């Protein structure tokens, strides 16, 4: 499988950047994971038509992870009527907050299905499972497995047992890294670079990618703080870069 980074900023973009969005591709499937502001245009530059998408998974309903769903639904709903989009796209998301979940739909753009912690999605040989993270709205970390390979996406979370558990032995761990340790306050709902490094070490992660970067940070400082706590392969998730797993 292959993951392409559509945006790596959070909770708002740096100039020329986009917020959370990741395209997961296998031989026969294309799945969009999160759809933050700025990601739709980049997605279309890769797949050409939204007919190519098999599903969309929203890890949680914060704006930096869903903003472009609100315009993608116009592309889908209107072009379904014109006949150029030939299907409704399955959209999986937690139903929290309820009013945001309901607002995602436009005409017949999506086939909406509520994500639960016990949900299991399969697409060919890919199996996707979910774990509840610690964040102000219901938020799921994703584990994607295919032919013995494991890709994990933390979504947004503060430090918790769940994020340590899902990272365990992952071949690729795409982890939010929104803070430098010096800026982390006790009730922060995001991880510091130090914490991400410690999680990756404890979980024996093979390759670590940092995402959901605070736009004002010096990226090298963030990377260095992580490297002080993780001696393995780590880099910033580069926008429009693809990573094979
Ligand atoms: Zn976020
Ligand atoms: Zn969030």
Summarize the SSE layout with pairings.
Elements (H helix, E strand, L loop, with lengths): L1 E6 L13 E5 L4 E6 L3 H9 L7 E3 L5 H4 L2 H14 L6 E5 L4 H6 L6 E5 L5 E4 L2 E7 L7 E7 L2 E5 L7 H7 L4 E5 L16 H10 L4 E5 L7 H9 L5 E4 L5 E3 L1
Parallel strand pairs: 3-4, 4-5, 5-6, 10-11, 11-12, 12-13
Antiparallel strand pairs: 1-2, 1-14, 2-3, 7-8, 8-9, 9-10
Bound molecules: zinc ion (2 copies).
One zinc ion (ZN) binds next to α2.
Question: Would you write up a description of this structure?
Answer:
This protein has 245 residues and is an alpha/beta fold. The protein has one domain (2-244): Ribonuclease Z/Hydroxyacylglutathione hydrolase-like (Metallo-beta-lactamase, Chain A, 4-Layer Sandwich), CATH 3.60.15.10. It has helices spanning 39-47, 63-66, 69-82, 98-103, 161-167, 193-202, 219-227, and strands spanning 2-7, 21-25, 30-35, 55-57, 89-93, 110-114, 120-123, 126-132, 140-146, 149-153, 172-176, 207-211, 233-236, 242-244. The strands form 2 sheets. It has a 7-stranded mixed β-sheet. The protein has a 7-stranded mixed β-sheet with strand order 7-8-9-10-11-12-13, covered by helices on one side. β3, α1 and β4 form a beta-alpha-beta unit. α6 packs parallel to α7. The longest helix has 14 residues, at 69-82. It starts with a strand and ends with a strand. The protein binds zinc ion (ZN) (2 copies). One zinc ion (ZN) is lined by residues 60, 62, 135, 156.
